[in-house]
Amino acid sequence: MTLIKTSAKAQRRARTLGVVLLVSALAILLLFVPGANAGQTTTFAFNETRSEAFAIPELAFPTRAGLYLMAALTAFAGAYQLARGFTRQGAVLGIVAGLFVLAFLTWAARGQSMNLTGMMKSSLLRAIPIILAALSGVMCERCGIVNIGIEGMMLSGAFLAALIGSVANNVWVGLIGAMLGGALMAALLAVLAIKYRVNQIVAGTAINILATGLTSYFSSRYLQKYEVLNTPPTFLPIPLPGLSRIPIIGPALFNHTVPVYLTLVLVIAIQLMLFYTRWGLRTRAVGEHPRAADTLGVNVFLTRYVNVLLGGCVAGLGGAYLVLSSVARFDELMTAGKGYIGLAAMIFGKWNPVGAFGSSLMFGFADSLQTRLAILAVPIPSQFLLMAPYLLTMVVLAGVVGRSRGPAAGGQPYEKE
Amino acid sequence: MPPVLQLRGITKRFPGVLANDHIDLELEQGQVLALLGENGAGKSTLMNILYGLYHPDEGEIYVRGEKADIQGPSDAIKLGIGMVHQHFMLVPVLTVTENVMLGMESIRNGIVLDRAKAARRIRDISDQYGLEVDPEATVEDLPVGIQQRVEIIKLLYRNADILILDEPTAVLTPQEVMGLIAVIRSLVAQGKSVVFISHKLKEVLELSDRIVVLRRGRSVGATTPAESDERSLASMMVGRDVILEVPKGPANPGDVVLDVRDLVVKGDQNKVAVSGVSFQVRGGEIVGVAGVQGNGQTELIEALTGLRAVESGRVELGGRDVANASPRSITEDGTAHVPEDRQRDGLVLGYSVADNLILNTYYLAPIAKGLAMQEAAITDRADRLIKEYDVRTPTPLTPAGNLSGGNQQKVIVARELSRPVKLTIASQPTRGLDVGSIEYIHSQLVKKRDEGAAVIVVSAELDEVMALADRILVMYEGRIMGALDAAAATKESLGMLMAGVATE
What we know:
By secondary structure, chain A is mainly α. Chain A has helices at about 1-30, 65-85, 90-110, 115-140, 150-170, 170-195, 200-225, 250-255, 260-275, 280-290, 290-295, 300-325, 340-350, 355-375, 380-400, and strands at about 40-45, 60, 115, 240, 255.
């Protein structure tokens, strides 16, 4: 019954996708083409540093012609979708979304030059804390605990990373301190949510408020006054031998600090663990139907405690990244909502680590795009530029991807009979 | 050889209830023991104790002659005891293999789940006991009968040899019940022992070697199928003589109340579910709708009650066309509806009994005065209906979800039939209910008939349709295959129509 309902929905989604593609083509023609003068060219550069094995020449092309080509490709995809239908709609959507963004960049960089490799790199870097927040969310929610407190866990992690890192004058100790900070807040969430069965949204919100209050107080009282407490050492980029010299992707992907590599490893590790190990199977079962897991002798409470604590460590790492990989100091409220964006990325990624990684990259890209465009002096108010990717995401999610379904027992306390 | 399982003096008290009162039980190896009793007699409590989900206040459990201390499900599993719960304990989004291996995972290379190995083992078990299932299928895509097989495989995978099946047939279609009975026979033939919990007399007589009857937490007797029949078992269960036939006089049909012409209704799949059905129901008669489930009965009833759009055709209720009228206007026209799924469509489980009793009249005086609800009137009505319809509830303010199935159904019947009603529609009115409640619901439907209302009863149980109806319509693939006078109908003739074979 529901199966067939979904297929009717799938048909509607397929149609919606076709229409969205055609509208995108039209948007390219109407929004971008009129802005480009006939003689203008767009230049994309690919060399970030001088470290690549060989230089890729810059790509310069007439802006208008490029835009027409992209509009034509998009329109063709839309027409094909409506007439015949693609089998891999997700991939098509991704490609066309990429085309649209490329068209936007082509327009924005008309008569100028834009460095795409630098863009990739800064997108990834800005996505790192979001990825870690999303991974933390995945670990908690997969076992049925809704974690709204990621923001607070990250903030605590950042605070302890700065404090402990400064005192020990060691980045690694700082990193461990950050995980400890996240885990402490996570322990609070776990006890409230699992043992005392407090509403998890309320418990998570309380953690955010608590973490904000505590870190702000101690920061203004001590960290901002005594510089020795707030000057942690930082991780330096480690170019991976060989890999970092590959043109384009080398500088973008393989010349980073330890926390960045660690994040990428975690994405893959958590994905594999969730779907290919005993821990993952039990975690998912507990998040979907705890009573069923319990009748088979799986310890529901233990599974949840372990996952929430590990999730807290991962969120703490997100805080550590902000302190130990970029600014080298703690500032009040420095997470600036990245924990919440991570939650959104987790949902867009359908509670999968790899999916969460992809949607985090999208948010990271949006973030870095906005600064680039400010440099290019694009005549759009920056607030609107900031909004656009999110609006697009909402349209795409509602019309094409469909409802994403979280773990069935998410947010429900488990009680033994 | 000692019995494979022996319970001695098991007693369990819940606040205010003595759920099990010194119950003794013995199960011999290779036998099927039926545990028979009405809802709330303490069958499930007893089995949950055995499976370690509850702890007894008194009493001892012996497994294969040795005293057992069962603290939790994992202890029970170690002792070779497995249980299929009434509500399945399956994770819908996981595959069959994942569900079966959960808690006892096969691992290779020290860390990676070995799905292939587990799937092989599942296939072996499937072959050995005739439990056909695809290990790679996702559980939520499987029909209920197959999900139940997965539950049984879960037990066998853990080498259980004492299998407890809690009301296994309650959710199955008649065909699936046949399949289950075959599986149980194959299990005992290969040395397994089975405790079979049920309140359905026919199955118990057909399947079991020994029968123990529970009533109000006490064991009231042990017998065998050879020494008993439906009537004697029913009176043991209920504690008094039970009339299994529905007592009713001849029908006295009056004017046509419901006139359905060429009705076409689409199902959830956007496919035609009811294709051109015409029939009439007169006041003072009960029309039974028989048929294998999924042949358009659900959609037909939903269309008649305004819950589903009518594509074409007419539905005249007392002369007014009510096709595509709102459910409220159809209700106000004098239609009572006892829905198929009482927990989903019949009640708001979190609301009190009193509030559930006014779901269809909450906006009318004396329940409402302007915008304000009249608490006194609600309480008055609840007290009156609870008494009149014999609803067993601690208080009128108890959430409906806390009542037993029979009492939930009585709340719905009280709400629907306590108004002046021209047409009563009851879908699966006694599904999952115990003998006493069935008797009661049937008598209420007959009473409505005798008061002159038109009554439609849809049931998957042929016995029920034959006992209750004056005329029987058989649905097959969205059409009415035939209409029979109940007096002339036999199981065979109905069965042919249900299978889509037209008689002359």
